[in-house]
Amino acid sequence: MSPQLTLQTPLELAPSEVPTYLEQLWSPQQQGNTGTGANTFCLLIWQPAWAEQQLVRSGRLQGPVTGQQTKALIAAGRQAVSDADLPLSTPPLNGTVIEAIANFEGNNETEDLRGQYIDPALSALMPRRLITLAPTIDADHPLETLVAAYCPLPEEGGGTTACGDVVVLRGGFDALQDGMTILEPLLPDSMPAWVWWNGFLDEAPQLMERLTCAPRRLIIDTAVGDPRQCLDLLRNRVEAGQAVNDLNWLRLRSWRETLAMVFDPPERRDALSHITRIDIDVEGHHPAQGLLLAAWIADRLGWDLQGTEAIEGGSSAQFRRPDGAQVSFQLMAVPMGQPNVHAGQMVGLRLIAEPDNGQGMCVILCADSGGCMRLEGGGMASLELHEEVVPVQHATPEMDVARQLSGGHDSTNPLLAAAAPLAARLLP
């Protein structure tokens, strides 16, 4: 059962007053009244919610603006795809949809509650401080700085209350930049600081660089933004030694586990040394997730990348196995009638192994959403066929972030660290 929260009414203060107010709030005299201050970590969130803001403005979604990826938001995004005459395979919250909605008529106003709601998945981790940067679609919106304390209520049986606080900086882009001077004193060196960039990775690069400097730990989603910039950013941060977590990589867990289980039986282990071809299908034209999976396979099996090229509908590459044999790789974009909210999610994988002696095998993994017919019709009748359905998890971004935070990782996952540079090289 998730802890319930008591959140005081946010107090609007001048930016210069925020550090002093929070220092007084957590003084020993005040803690006696509000409970014990949490001392686990601080979380800084870039929360633009562009699609939600535009949908509410145009009257296609009822407010308030919360920054949460709700079912109503996704449904409104899908309707906007239809209204704007975009291809039905367009993800409902991507940049193309946001640009189209910006041209829709409407000037509705609503309450903006970004940063003022703490998801139970995050509150259960008892963060000391949640800081939300909430840029507005109104570029001239003045800076608003809001502060509130929160306390998880003890579950049945009692327990000690560990309280924290929320800080919200809301305004136009220029106003936010001016207000960021208060961030340093709000992120003490005494506890870990995470930055969750909950937006496009190719937007506001200078601001991102300023917010996400090491030793702050970074959470990104390589499914959001231009594929090249997403993979280059991931590679650069990994190679720089910064602790970075990728939600797109996290969603690959069931694919990695399912593929590993296929080769668990001892009689199939030898096939791993005789793979000759890998085909991957992803939703639409965002290849990052598929390339990360291919890079993980290649790294685990010790393959060397020989070259890549762009082909119609996707890309291809050649690897060399440790024994000198060649492995062909192809990634294709597959249009889906109702695509995942996350661009470029895995649809299917086909792996072919052809040992010198013995029958070859063909492994086909398909997402439980279907769409794997192209891979299944590959004419591999002479091979031993192994088919598995991969259960696709549909967790909220907040739940995925909580999974990363609960691990307490102070470094990048070693498997991701090894795969990220190769995935960037696989993009032609």
Short description:
The protein has helices at residues 18-25, 28-34, 50-57, 71-83, 95-102, 120-123, 173-179, 183-186, 205-211, 227-239, 247-250, 253-262, 288-301, 373-376, 397-406, 414-426, and strands at residues 5-7, 11-12, 36-37, 42-46, 129-135, 144-152, 162-171, 193-197, 217-220, 244-246, 275-283, 304-311, 314-320, 326-334, 346-353, 361-367, 384-390.
Structure, explained:
This protein has helices spanning 18-25, 28-34, 50-57, 71-83, 95-102, 120-123, 173-179, 183-186, 205-211, 227-239, 247-250, 253-262, 288-301, 373-376, 397-406, 414-426; strands spanning 5-7, 11-12, 36-37, 42-46, 129-135, 144-152, 162-171, 193-197, 217-220, 244-246, 275-283, 304-311, 314-320, 326-334, 346-353, 361-367, 384-390. It has 428 residues and is of the alpha/beta class. Among the domains are: 50-102, no CATH class; 253-390, Dihydrodipicolinate Reductase, domain 2 (2-Layer Sandwich), CATH 3.30.360. The strands form 2 sheets. Strands 1, 2, 3, 4, 5, 6, 7, 8, 9 and 10 form a 10-stranded mixed beta sheet that branches. Strands 12-13-14-11-15-16-17 form a 7-stranded mixed beta sheet, covered by helices on one side. It starts with a strand and ends with a helix. The mean pLDDT is 90.
What general outline do the C-alpha atoms trace? globular
Please give the CATH architecture of the domain at 253-390: 2-Layer Sandwich
Structural class: alpha/beta
| CATH C-level name of the domain at 253-390 | Alpha Beta
Output mean pLDDT: 90
Kindly state the percentage of residues in helix. Answer: 25-40%
Number of helices: 16
**Could you say what the CATH topology of the domain at 253-390 is called?**
Dihydrodipicolinate Reductase, domain 2
Low-confidence stretches at least 5 residues in length (pLDDT < 50)? none
**How can the largest sheet be summarized?**
10 strands, mixed
Q: Count the beta strands.
A: 17
Tell me the radius of gyration: 24 Å
Question: What is the beta-strand fraction?
Answer: 15-25%
- State the end-to-end CA separation: 47 Å
